[in-house]
Specification:
With 139 residues, the protein is mostly helical. It has a single domain (3-138), classed as TerB-like, CATH 1.10.3680. It has helices spanning 7-13, 20-39, 47-61, 67-74, 78-81, 84-92, 97-110, 119-131.
Length: 139
């Protein structure tokens, strides 16, 4: 399965509603895009970060995502047209709170996997939490 088909988000931006299967795939798409972009959030993608994204995606989704797909997602041209924040905000409306919290937990695992958390990574984390509309009590 290729995560990068982006069918779930394409459908959302087209105004259509999602089937349960499409919603489940959207969770995976959002997790991939969020984690991949986190690896690039400090402008210096390290192999350890890509490895961690792969590990977390495998553990949380059961799918092996190739390094090349993670790198494409991290630098996706999709975000030249819409911001990641807008993508996450639109997606969040179709995700259960449990799924959104799981994405944040996965993000915590990835950010700092290179043994440091930069200010840009902190800003990225805060933006994702806000865009996914996660109450502080759930963090």
């Amino acid at each position: 399965m290729s995560f990068f088909s982006m069918t779930g988000i394409s459908k959302l931006f087209g105004g259509a509603s999602l089937t349960e299967e499409e919603r489940a795939n959207l969770v995976k798409e959002v997790m991939l895009m969020t984690l991949a972009r986190a690896a690039a959030s400090d402008t210096n993608i390290k192999s350890v970060e890509i490895d961690k994204v792969q590990e977390v995606l495998q553990a949380r989704t059961g799918v092996d995502v190739p390094t090349s797909e993670i790198r494409v997602a991290a630098n996706s041209a999709l975000f030249e047209k819409i911001s990641l924040e807008k993508y996450l905000t639109r997606s969040a409306k179709n995700l259960e709170l449990e799924d959104r919290v799981d994405i944040i937990k996965a993000l915590r695992e990835v950010i700092g996997s290179d043994d440091r958390v930069s200010e840009m990574e902190q800003d990225f984390f805060n933006m994702v939490v806000k865009a996914l509309d996660i109450p502080a009590a759930n963090l």
